[in-house]
Amino acid sequence: MAFVTEGNLTDLAVKRWATARSPRLAELMTALVRHLHAYAREVELTGEEWAAAVDWLTATGRISDDKRQEFILASDVLGLSTLVVQLNHRFSADATPATVLGPFHIDGSPAAPFGADMSDGVPGTPLFVTGRVLDLAGTPLPDVVLDVWQADADGTYEAQLPEIDEARLRATYRTRADGTYCVRTIAPRGYAIPMDGPVGGLISGTDISYFRPAHIHFLIDHPGHQKLITHLFQQGAEFLDTDVVFGTKDELIVRFTERPAGACPDGGTIDEPYLHAEFDFVLQPQAHTTDDEVTA
Ligand code: BEZ
Ligand code: FE
Questions:
Q1: Which family does it belong to (predicted)?
Q2: Which has the closest alpha carbon to 32: 51, 18, 42?
Q3: Which of 132, 212, 222, 231 is catalytic?
Q4: 60 φ, ψ to 5°?
């Protein structure tokens, strides 16, 4: 083997990692080595800075558990999570765009009938979200499950409240025969990402706004269509143009119209003023797979 010099080190390390037996792992690791070395060369990384980075990564691992994922948060604020979403969801312009999942989704939310109130007494302004789920041709899709979750009016998710043992501000709704759905909830508010860990520590040394604009999360995984993980954002909300995780998209911004007490979108009545957001989700068909790809 050639002795190591500053000049040949990157090539030597790339050749070593090119021996990975999985071709994809070889591609991932050799590119990682090239980019890491280029980064260290570009910024002339010092030993102290390298050690500080190791300490930061160690702290990020230590604070993470099954409820808190600080590495995902790091990926979110660096824009990497949104980039991965973009690279893997090159949907047609007519389909509803995807955005980040975020760390607060909980599997197995209870089924809620059309118009059922998933806020169930949590304080806030009543909000109805209604619309249809459609395919790309505009055909309404019946029996589509919409998995919906959001923060309360203080910006707190159920996943951040260990003492809660029943579903809070999350539910699964199903479209009716005509493709319509109706979610009843409370208006979400913008909130700060967790700032008490290593990610918050880094952000505190910058002018980055650490808030997310008011939004509701939706996950729609319907057979024959690509899984859609997205949000609806309130038009005019604070932080839309500075979303700390780069999740906001123009197509996902919806007007929350103020309505008086009286008739409401689930066909019933309500005795206080409420907000109404209307949005049709358009699903991207499953990518065509050849027989070769299926058996590969
Ligand atoms: C969220 O929308 O729930 C979220 C996404 C990324 C980081 C923190 C929160
Ligand atoms: Fe969120």
A1: Belongs to the intradiol ring-cleavage dioxygenase family.
A2: 18
A3: 212
A4: -65, -40
Q: Give domain limits for the chain.
A: 9-66, 77-282
User: Catalytic site residue 191?
Assistant: yes
Query: Can 212 be counted among the known catalytic residues?
Result: yes
**Average pLDDT value over all residues in the chain:** 94
CA distances from 197 to 80, 118, 154, 224 (A): 19, 31, 20, 40
Question: Taking CB atoms and a 6 Å cutoff, what residues make up the pocket around ligand 1?
Answer: 73, 76, 100, 102-104, 193, 212, 245
pTM of the predicted model, to two decimals? Answer: 0.91
Tell me whether residue 202 is exposed, middle or buried, using C-beta atoms within 10 angstroms of its C-beta: 0 to 12, 13 to 18, 19 or more: middle
The strand ranges marked E within the chain are 126-134, 145-149, 170-174, 180-186, 191-192, 211-212, 215-220, 228-234, 253-254, 257-259, 262-263, 269-270, 274-278, 281-282
CATH code of the domain occupying 77-282: 2.60.130.10
**Per-residue tokens: 31:** 């590119």
pLDDT average, residue stretch 177-205: 96
**What is the pLDDT averaged over residues 8-34?**
98
